[in-house]
Amino acid sequence: MKRIIVGITGASAVIYGVRLLETLTRCDDYEIHLTISDSGARALWEELQLRVDLDNFRLESLIGYSSDQVIYHHQSDIGASIASGSFRTVGMIVAPCSMGTIGSIAAGISRNLIQRAADVCIKERRKLVLVPRETPLSPIHLENMLKLSQMGVVVLPAMPGFYHFPKTVDDMINFVITKTLDQFDIDTDLIQRWKEDL
């Protein structure tokens, strides 16, 4: 079974992290290692009215059902498996990814488990996909994202396309999740792809 790390931070649009988990739990060949920042838990409440207790985490509070595929790690657990390069994974997705998290990762600062796991992915040359949701972007944001991109990190802003004729907000969310999972060659049926039969 392949292992993939998912981090959810306090950037707006935490629905991306929730939809990502919902989609990955339908992929039987993936073990998902999840960590959520304090700000991520706050955003889950403020945006989706999901009360997630990081100290007594239950997956059902996040996606409405349990799954043996998901292994939760508290964001302060620096001894977690995903904090070590010797724990092999296919990589990590941070969705949504706050600009504070991007800045910390770009500077090599690990103040929580999300930042440490991302640092591990960079040093081990594993796939790291960051899904920022911020606008407008300051020169600092752009410099940090450029620095990470030059290191091989995939910066995948939450910018939905419209060629699949979205009719709902869900359609736009699914576009971003599809593009994110494409980075790991994980196919989904969430959207109709370009040039497929209409």
UniProtKB/TrEMBL annotation:
Coiled-coil annotated spans: none
Source organism, top-level taxon: Eukaryota
InterPro entries (alphabetical): Flavin_trans-like (IPR036551), Flavoprotein (IPR003382), UbiX-like (IPR004507)
GO terms for MF: carboxy-lyase activity; flavin prenyltransferase activity
Family matches, as SUPFAM superfamilies: Homo-oligomeric flavin-containing Cys decarboxylases, HFCD (SSF52507)
Enzyme class of the recorded protein, top EC level: transferase
Keywords for this protein: Flavoprotein, FMN, Prenyltransferase, Transferase
EC id: 2.5.1.129
Residue span, Flavoprotein domain: 2-183
UniProt key word Transcription regulation: no
HAMAP family: ubiX_pad
Cited PANTHER family: FLAVIN PRENYLTRANSFERASE, FLAVIN PRENYLTRANSFERASE PAD1, MITOCHONDRIAL
Similarity section: Belongs to the UbiX/PAD1 family.
Protein name stated in the entry: flavin prenyltransferase
Highest classification ranks of the organism: Eukaryota, Metazoa, Porifera, Demospongiae, Heteroscleromorpha
